[in-house]
Amino acid sequence: MRRRHLLGSLLLAPVLTACFASEGSEGSQGGDPGGDAGDGSRLRVALAFPPAENLSPYGADATLLSRLGVTEGLTALDANGAAAPALAQSWRRENDRTWLFTLREATFQDGSEVTPAAVAAALTHATEAKPAPAALSGVTLTVEARSAAVRITTTNPDPVLPLRLSSPGLAVLSPKAYQDGADPVGTATGPFELTKVNGATSAALDRFDDYWGGRAQASGIDARFIADGTARANAVRTGQVDIAEAIPVAQAATLDKATLEETATTRTTSLQLNTRSGPFRDPKLRAAAREAVDSSAVVKGVFEGYADPGAGIYGPAVTWAEGKRVQPTGRASAAKPHRTAVTVATYDNRPELPEVAQVLQQQLQKAGFKVTLEVREYSRLESDALAGKFDAFIGARNSLVDTGDPVGVLASDYTCGGGYNLARLCDEKADRAVAEADAVADTGERQDAAMRAEAAILGTDAVVPLAHQGIIVGVATDVRGVLLDPYERTLVGAGTRR
User: Rounded CA gap, 310 and 291, in Å?
Assistant: First the structure.
């Protein structure tokens, strides 16, 4: 990758330092957000993914809300992937199943106070959501209000609960939000307040002047949801937007270098094979698909150097992974495909993915498969993919976005009860390895166990890692304080301005 900012080890103990969403971090990029910002200019932001679930904080839309500076949880992630303060200013572990989180003084955007009772109610609503937020996959917890704090008890020991609570899917909203579902409009705690949502087209946000972290420097945000990557790049080029996420690599060369920001991420593009129905229920055909794939061709031909070849579920941005990686064992022998017909689906919100699909179509056809491609916009594809209506799915997944914990993505994506199990994998050995990893508290030992679980999952050939990606964001030259992090949870914060 041309310019890589690598992560350090994931730290599981609470670290009371600045995080990507913190004012210290933003101030270092663009001044003190608590200072005299005046009225500020509104920011024009283009996002790649329109709301798929009416901006529910419990699903894929949760990161839209965090990236726009709308929602917050009890904790956030710092630059090293450790838990850092957000609505909770500190916490301590009382015993192996119970934690006490002390709250800071803060106000919801509807004017009500962030009280222990309100926080307890919000997190309880999250535990009752159907489907459950990915961060709660396999976890049962109860929340009790205490004086200036909440006590959270888990059914089983959960050594990474502070990391888990940083998930955008566990954002805290005011009691008003839960009168009908979980409505984030005017009920969150972040520096920007949603005031209007125009379906899947656009949204308007105003500065929340009572934000606990200080008054935002921009007066508001005009967000547009533009699924077409070329259109996002053109919007930057012509000055129609100030910030555009996920610029396609094919468009990067057409933009002024001064408007491009690049960072390594923990995002991996993978081929997920449907293990429960269709041809890839046969592990021998899954092995044949794996052997047919040449990830170096994908990196060179599609990502043009803005990625690394697929090495596993965790890529080079997770710096500890490579030295701990365990080779998969017990893989099935590949069978001859004999023109077996398969349907491979992907989405076009990330323009590279249809190109990846075309490369894989050629590779699989050369190996003897008959391949049909299905390309849609993501919000029109997700439910069918989760329901197993395709034989294979090509997606780009940030392996640490849900919890910051390396075990979290394994539980949500590759276990029998996982809520985002696109491969529909239900393997006893893999489930056992994930459960064993989830029980480990020590940082290094948990990493070792996560790599053993990764090997067990890769050994099923349910997933074929293709590329570990960087991201390119288009940023106007007069904009400061854009928040780029490897977990892709943040984009605009209190210090972002033009």
Answer: 13
Residue 94 contacts residue 161 (beta carbons within 8 Å):
no
Q: What is the pTM of this model?
A: 0.76
CA distance 382 to 52: 9
Average pLDDT over residues 159-164: 92
> pLDDT tens digit string along 345-359?
999 988 899 999 999
Distance CA(193)–CA(221), nearest Å, equals 9
Confidence grade of residue 37 (pLDDT, cut at 50, 70, 90):
very low
Task: Give the per-residue SS3 of 84-149.
Answer: EECCEEEEEEEECCEEEEEECCCECCCCCECCHHHHHHHHHHHHHCCCCCHHHCCCCEEEEEECCE
Cα 263 from chain centre: 15
Whether the Cβ atoms of residue 76 and residue 67 lie closer than 8 Å to each other:
no
Task: Please state whether 210 falls in left (phi above 0), alpha (psi between -120 and 50) or beta.
Answer: alpha
pLDDT over 90 for what percent of the chain? 73
Task: For residue 399, give the nearest of 467, 472, 473, 348 by alpha carbon.
Answer: 467
Q: What is the DSSP letter of 122?
A: H
Give me the residues paired with residue 307 across strands. 469
φ and ψ at residue 2, rounded to 5 degrees: -70, -35
Nearest to 21 by CA among 73, 97, 57: 73
Name, in order, each residue with C-beta under 8 angstroms of 416's C-beta and a sequence gap of 6 or more: 425, 426, 431
Beta bridge partners of 264: 470
Taking the C-alpha atoms of residue 144 and residue 175, their distance in angstroms, rounded to an integer, is 15
* Apex 247 CA angle, 241 and 248, nearest 5: 145
The region that residue 315 occupies, defined by phi over 0 for left and psi between -120 and 50 for alpha, beta otherwise, is beta
Closest by CA to 100, choosing from 166, 162, 163, 151, is: 151
